[in-house]
């Protein structure tokens, strides 16, 4: 039925088009766009029977644009969620943004190596991350030095994990720069939320009076506990700081400093990395730390054993005139170094360690673990004097330990690789060879691979060289010497503690000075009967009355003497 007033055709067309453009409340789609896409798909594909395939094409277009409100109950997923690596790409896109120049640091950004050039050397040695991945690593390092107060950085390597890998960067802090990240990961600093929580806990603790209660019947321990060794701060094994990430563009996470006791235990265990820095290490001996600390210990061990440079590249600093005991001499780059020919680089005597040796106690410089005994003895303590009078002699023995402790020593700095210990199977610690046998040695790079730490390598060509590690973070394990079929055997568990036993002494007729000791087992006593308890109570009261009468008689006798 036509309306009373005629509507122009163009207006009627616009009204019809606007009706078709109305979006659905459920799918947020409109019929106009859907029909347009469907007709375009028909013209593109040109099916044999277009009318029969129209409904199928329409359904396919609807499914491709479907967005479920509840992802758990939906069958179809949005298109943008089906593409793998989309989130990683979004993160890596931010690496191409130019760093902000509003507040540049006064001393400039840290030094970044040209890893695009170094990657050519790595490829000669069989290590390649790919051109795109290498460039992403360069951009990620540029972002790191822009955000952190680092003087210089270098790509240390990659350690593979069970569920994720660690890309590791070694950096040196600027002189006088504050290490906020280090304070947080080492537990010496607090975030804003942690500071508020600790302040609230301290305020609550002030309101509660805590009085330590000591049981006088319990014996006091006479043997002192050896305090933990102090860690080296911005020196020695902690001279450099290390940041890790899972892929180029991911946030860099600072690793904690090396603790000597943790490094000692890391030499006795073998745990594969998972890729989670917060993962607790379950092992024997007990590590009592997360994977971040274990990773940092392994990095320190690998660096001390495999990072090397051509002989003459580094020289001792003539301005370092410190004569302190155990002081590690400083080294600087030799400005007169001109490089070595490839023939010379194939000799292990032409390479030296420029990272100091880590002592068995987990430090670069030796620290007397018994030094605190001597200091506390000099201060003097009344309780300790009483112990000496009792004839125990514990303090004297501790003083002897502190005075007679032998300092640990190791290979000196800049010692040649030829002096390294052999690998577990008895072979050489390093294997040096030319990267190609098809061209003369002078035209091909030289590579050195560590057999004690598989994955550590050095690549050099004339005056260029680079150290890198790509592996699982563990050393070589051979057969024999407490090992079985190349697998590490953990230390033997200690003996089970014995039950409490009573020791009785008997006279020795042959040697009166050395009595015979007999160990008696635990004897379970029987509960007394009611008659025995009554008899015990009567005897106890009788003794108390006798003591009271004796005290009264003594007082009367004293009074009579005073009157006389």
Could you explain how this protein is built, in words?
With 564 residues, the protein is an alpha+beta fold. It contains 16 helices and 14 strands. It has helices spanning 9-20, 31-45, 50-64, 79-82, 86-93, 115-124, 131-147, 180-185, 192-207, 260-266, 291-306, 342-345, 371-379, 382-389, 394-404, 530-563, and strands spanning 150-159, 166-173, 241-245, 253-254, 308-310, 314-316, 331-333, 351-353, 430-434, 446-450, 456-461, 464-471, 502-506, 516-520. Helix 13 (371-379) packs across helix 15. The longest helix is centred in the last third of the chain and has 34 residues, at 530-563.
Radius of gyration: 39 Å
In terms of structural class, how would the helical and strand content be classed? alpha+beta
Largest sheet: 8 strands, mixed
Uncertain stretches of 5 or more adjacent residues = 380-384, 386-392, 480-484
Share of helix, binned: 25-40%
Strand content: 5-15%
Strands of the widest sheet, in order across it, are 4-3-2-1-12-11-10-9
Specify the number of helices: 16
Terminal Cα separation, in Å?
A: 147 Å
Summed over residues and divided by their number, the pLDDT gives a mean of 82
Q: What is the overall shape?
A: extended
Please count the beta strands (DSSP E, at least 2 residues each).
14
How would you spell out the order of helices and strands?
A: HHHHHHHEEHHEEHHEEEHEHHHEEEEEEH
């Amino acid at each position: 039925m036509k309306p009373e007033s005629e509507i122009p055709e163009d207006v009627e067309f616009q009204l019809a088009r606007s009706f078709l453009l109305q979006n659905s409340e459920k799918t947020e789609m409109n019929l106009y766009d859907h029909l347009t896409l469907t007709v375009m798909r028909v013209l593109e594909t040109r099916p044999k029977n277009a009318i029969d395939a129209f409904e199928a094409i329409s359904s396919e277009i609807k499914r491709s644009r479907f967005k479920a409100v509840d992802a758990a109950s939906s069958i179809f997923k949005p298109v943008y969620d089906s593409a793998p690596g989309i989130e990683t790409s979004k993160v890596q896109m931010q690496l191409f943004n130019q760093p902000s120049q509003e507040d540049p640091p006064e001393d400039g950004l840290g030094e970044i190596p040209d890893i695009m050039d170094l990657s050519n050397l790595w490829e000669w040695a069989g290590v390649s991350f790919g051109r795109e991945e290498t460039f992403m690593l360069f951009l990620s390092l540029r972002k790191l030095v822009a955000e952190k107060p680092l003087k210089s950085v270098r790509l240390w390597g990659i350690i593979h994990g069970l569920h994720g890998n660690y890309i590791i960067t070694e950096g040196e802090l600027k002189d006088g720069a504050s290490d906020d990240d280090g304070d947080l990961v080492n537990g010496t600093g607090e975030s804003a939320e942690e500071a508020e929580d600790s302040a609230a806990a301290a305020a609550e603790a002030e309101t509660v009076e805590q009085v330590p209660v000591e049981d006088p019947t319990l014996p006091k321990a006479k043997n002192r506990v050896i305090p933990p060794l102090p860690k080296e701060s911005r020196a020695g094994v902690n001279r450099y700081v290390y940041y890790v990430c899972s892929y180029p563009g991911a946030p860099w996470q600072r690793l904690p400093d090396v603790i000597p006791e943790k490094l000692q235990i890391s030499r006795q265990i073998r745990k594969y990395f998972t890729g989670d820095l917060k993962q607790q290490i379950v092992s024997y001996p007990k590590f009592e730390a997360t994977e971040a600390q274990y990773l940092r210990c392994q990095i320190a061990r690998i660096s001390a054993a495999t990072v090397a440079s051509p002989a003459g590249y580094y020289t001792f600093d003539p301005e370092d005139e410190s004569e302190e005991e155990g002081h590690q001499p400083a080294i600087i780059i030799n400005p007169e170094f001109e490089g070595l020919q490839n023939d010379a680089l194939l000799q292990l005597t032409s390479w030296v360690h420029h990272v100091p040796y880590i002592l068995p106690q987990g430090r670069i410089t030796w620290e007397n673990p018994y030094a605190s005994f001597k200091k506390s003895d000099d201060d003097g303590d009344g309780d300790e004097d009483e112990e000496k009078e009792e004839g125990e002699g514990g303090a004297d023995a501790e003083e002897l330990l502190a005075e007679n402790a032998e300092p640990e020593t190791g290979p000196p700095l800049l010692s040649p690789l030829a002096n390294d210990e052999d690998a577990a199977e008895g072979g050489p610690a390093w294997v040096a060879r030319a990267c190609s046998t098809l061209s003369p040695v002078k035209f091909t790079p030289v590579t050195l691979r560590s057999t004690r730490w598989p994955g550590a390598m050095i690549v050099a060509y004339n005056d260029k060289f680079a150290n890198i590690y790509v592996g699982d973070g563990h050393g070589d394990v051979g057969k024999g010497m407490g090992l079985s079929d190349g697998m590490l055997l953990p230390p033997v568990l200690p003996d089970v503690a014995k039950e409490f036993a009573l020791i009785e002494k008997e006279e020795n007729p042959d040697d009166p000075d050395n009595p015979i000791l007999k160990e008696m087992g635990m004897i379970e006593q029987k509960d007394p009967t009611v008659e025995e308890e009554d008899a015990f109570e009567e005897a106890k009261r009788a003794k108390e009355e006798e003591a009271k009468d004796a005290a009264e008689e003594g007082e009367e006798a004293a009074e009579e003497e005073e009157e006389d």
